[in-house]
Specification:
By secondary structure, the protein is α/β, with parallel strands linked by helices. It has 11 helices and 11 strands. The protein has a 7-stranded mixed sheet, with helices on both faces. Helix 1 packs parallel to helix 9 and helix 6 crosses helix 11. It binds 6-O-phosphono-beta-D-fructofuranose (F6P). The site of 6-O-phosphono-beta-D-fructofuranose has 11 residues, from loops.
Length: 328
């Protein structure tokens, strides 16, 4: 492989707090090692549109505390086509770019792997950035910690009003295929039930446990429903419960995109910095088609293929057991 001289960095898919600290680490580690760095705007779309700019140390000043991503992001359909990939490749080559750091989730990595197989002369390293925490190969993904803290803060507030009115709240949190936020937030906030895509909860069971809560003199109850739960959505669940659980005023709250914003937590700033630093070092060491991740507090490389094919992220067994026992 030829010596690396110029790399590009992009963020793609759903933004996640911690992406900015990661971009900063990529840029400064690359410059420190004598590489040139190009920032790509709006993810893969920026590769296709040639929407890129040279970055220096000052391009990433004062961004550690910012949510979102200074490079902007997009879910880019044209990059799934051969024509889109070819345009991206030509634009990268014309600028003399021989390495690409992509920060995002499984959709981002799917694109990165296809691109890298087609055009192996451009090294590609992935950084796991998604609030969903659902990538194999890293115990934590960028943004998960901040998003969970945001959700906890919101649910604590809802608990105040639920308790004041003796109400039952159904709260939907993000996670299309992942119950990671729901589980952590549920345990942290003492939710009476947590509904996850990874474990089916029959509505009948939920009704029995909510009735038991009433019998045990619980004044308020909170049920957290992950977006990807298989019972048809938070409103349908609330309606089904309303028919059976009497004497409870029922409300529904969907937390939505507020979960994706906000200043990254200390954990996400450190994680972003570590993973960005590691991504550039991996590329300098000649690696490609790999993801940098954190396992047992160590930086570990996983092939993009493995990160994608094994992407069923397993929720912690003890948390799954606790979720039923501690909410009684
Ligand atoms: O992948 C992160 C995520 O926030 C999911 O939890 C959610 O289902 C999805 O993105 C929402 O995507 P969008 O912002 O494109 O609607």
């Amino acid at each position: 492989m030829q010596k690396l001289s110029k790399i590009a960095v992009l963020t793609s898919g759903g933004d996640a707090p911690g992406m900015n600290p990661c971009i900063r680490a990529v840029v400064r580690t690359a410059l420190y090692n004598g590489l040139e760095v190009v920032g790509v705007r709006q993810g893969y779309q920026g590769l296709i549109d040639n929407n890129m700019y040279d970055m220096n140390n000052r391009s990433v000043s004062n961004i550690l505390n910012l949510g979102g991503t200074i490079l902007k992001t997009a879910r880019c359909l044209p990059f799934r086509t051969d024509e889109g990939m070819e345009l991206a490749y030509k634009n990268l080559k014309a600028r003399g770019i021989d390495g690409l750091v992509v920060i995002g989730g499984d959709g981002t990595f799917t694109g990165a792997l296809r691109f890298s197989r087609k055009y192996p002369d451009i090294a590609v390293i992935g950084v796991p950035g998604t609030i969903d925490n659902d990538l194999y190969g890293s115990t934590y993904t960028l943004g998960f910690d901040t998003a969970t803290n945001t959700v906890i803060e919101a649910i604590d507030k809802i608990r105040d009003t639920a308790d004041a009115h003796d109400r039952l709240f159904f709260i939907e949190v993000m996670g299309r295929d992942s119950g990671a936020i729901a589980l952590r937030a549920g345990i942290s906030c003492g939710a009476e039930a947590i509904m996850l895509p990874e474990k089916e909860t029959a509505i009948e069971e939920l009704i029995v446990s909510l009735k038991a809560g009433q019998y045990n003199k619980k004044s308020s109850s909170i049920v957290i429903v992950a977006e990807g739960d298989k019972n048809g959505g938070v409103y349908d669940i609330a309606k089904a419960v309303e028919k059976e659980v009497k004497n409870y005023d029922i409300k529904v709250t969907i937390l939505g995109h507020l979960q994706r914003g906000g200043s990254p937590s200390s954990f996400d700033r450190i994680l972003g910095s570590r993973l960005g630093f590691a991504a550039v070092n991996a590329m300098i060491a000649g690696k490609t088609q790999q993801m940098v991740g954190l396992q047992a507090n160590n930086i570990v490389l996983t092939t993009l293929e493995e990160a994608l094919t094994q992407h069923e992220f397993k929720l912690e067994d003890d948390l799954m057991q606790m979720m039923e026992i501690l909410s009684i």
